[in-house]
Amino acid sequence: MEKVLVLGGTRFFGKRLTERLLKEGKEVTLATRGESGNPFGNTVHHLKVDRFNRGSMEKIFQDGEWDVIYDQICFSPDDAMDAVDIFSGRTGRYVFTSTLSVYDFDDKGCKKEDDFDPFHYPLKEGRKEAFSYGEGKRLAEAVFAQKADFPVTMVRPPIVVGTDDYTKRLQYYMQRIQNRQPIGLDQPDARLSFVHAGELADFLYFAGHETFTGPVNTSSPDAVSLHELMQLMQHELQDGSVIIQPTSDSVEASPMNFPASYYQDVNRAKEAGFAFSPMSNWLPGLIRDLKHSIS
Question: Domain of life, per the record (predicted)?
Fold first, then answer.
């Protein structure tokens, strides 16, 4: 039986990944702080570890080997270096959940994997408190790319959405549309990428059982402007108004107030054998499902 270790994996797309692994008959070990509990009971091995403390990592993982390791909670170069050292020679494959945020905002809206090269990015030390979210992920990718002696795939999701999204970003917009409240957007025509949590979990599973390595973008192949997204929400809500205003002292910035278009080319994933679904296949239905969660 294939042995899989998941660092994280108790909520959102990490939980969906764990569900998929169990469905496929894998022997799963979950490693978490234990703060969110263990929703899988005795169907998994559960280890309590502080992912951001090297001593805790060394103690908990002093023994064991895994065919695949999924890392959902690595946010800095020191986090990555701990994994590189501790799991050296002890896994056949490592799948690191990185982010779209490794790419800069610039006049090139469509991001390709080669727009950020972790294999030649200068290394630094530090935990996540020392860096922005995007820089911490860039440096973590660089450590894996340049230091790991095991194969690493760096998964770069954009905005992840689903009914179990604990950030409730989509609900924020739906609530304001329904209540006819202003939405703070400075660039409403900026085009963005999204991925459904279920499909991201499927890709993570896929990545753990294929041979490709390095960075890979993971989103629906189409992009949508924020204004178009708001209009779709209003259509599905059948109520409210879309009132978009620039941010100011009296209008707060909304959660996806991006300064420019920021979306992904996903041809690399397609060439590897995984085709993401267009948003038109799932986004209207997701909005309808979320409609019941707002008051």
Answer: Bacteria
